[in-house]
Amino acid sequence: MRTIGMAAIAAVTAILACGSARADYVAPFQGNDTGGIISANLIGQTDIRALAINHCAQYGKVVKWLSIQKTYGSYSSFACRWTRHGSYERPLRVRY
Predict the structure, then answer these.
(1) Could you tell me the CA-to-CA distances from 60 to 19, 24, 25, 86, 96 in Å, in that order?
(2) Is the C-alpha dihedral spanning 63, 58, 73, 22 positive or negative?
(3) 82: closest CA among 18, 24, 11, 33?
(4) Which helix (H) or strand (E) holds 57?
(5) Which long-range contacts (CB under 8 A, 24 or more apart) does 67-75 make?
(6) Average pLDDT of the residues in 26-44
(7) So what's the pLDDT on residue 84?
(8) I need a surface site. Which of 35, 82, 85, 93 has the fewest CB within 10 A?
(9) pLDDT of residue 36
(10) Do residues 69 and 76 touch, judged by C-beta distance below 8 A?
(11) Cβ atoms within 10 A of the Cβ of 90, count?
(12) How far apart are CA 69 and CA 36, in angstroms?
């Protein structure tokens, strides 16, 4: 019984020591109901405006761009805002 317990502890220790935590990984597109960020690597590959519009439209909001940076390793940020006061239009979803 004692050998099985020691073998299990050794196996768990080996898995934790060899596996990476991936604490430095950030997804190329992240967001919530208040806004989000888009990696500069996606600028040439996809339409980042459509990504942001679809994301904010899920929450019934519109996009306001905060910064667009095209340098390597940087992120463009946007905020999801409520529609203008007095506007009866719903946010549109972009579909291709």
Answers:
(1) 40, 32, 29, 15, 20
(2) positive
(3) 33
(4) helix 48-57
(5) 69/40, 70/40, 70/43, 71/40, 72/40, 73/40, 74/40, 75/37, 75/38, 75/39, 75/40
(6) 88
(7) 63
(8) 85
(9) 94
(10) yes
(11) 10
(12) 14
**Domain edges within the chain:** 27-81
Percent of the chain with pLDDT over 90: 22
* Residue 3 DSSP symbol: H
pTM above 0.70, yes or no: no
Both tokens of 12, joined, read 């768990």
pLDDT in tens, 79-93: 999 876 556 666 666
**pLDDT score of 66:** 93
Could you tell me the sign of the dihedral formed by the alpha carbons of 47, 52, 55, 61, in that order? negative
Residue with tokens 């806004």: 35
Q: How far is it, in rounded angstroms, from Cα 33 to Cα 79? A: 9
